[in-house]
Here is the input.
Amino acid sequence: MRIGELAKRLNVATSKIRFLEKQGLIRPIRLSSGYRDYDDGAIETLQIILQAQSFGFTLQEIDSSFIETKGQGLRCGYIIKRLTGKRHELDRHIEQLLALRTRMTNTIEELEQRLAASHQASPNRTKHRSLKAGVA
Here is the structure.
């Protein structure tokens, strides 16, 4: 099948397929006319690539997986191992983001307390400042 049909079947742009070909992840047959010809194996390979990308795998990681399993296919045990590793990586990112969120929340609360304390300490000065800010 030609690149346009393949792109339509997988709902991707032809430019993405050409890019993946340039990266060496898919290899179509070149017809004498120069057109690319993709077999059913290309559909399966592209589906694997697209799903792996949706899980956060980089093209380099995907390429490494293809190299590691060359001739054997991506077996379930191998896929489970790689997905488990990616999930651990995701868990670490989530922990880091939660810690960052906690630090932000604490800083916001501290700043709100300072602001409230400064309003109580000098209510006239605070009103005066906001009037000046509004006049400018």
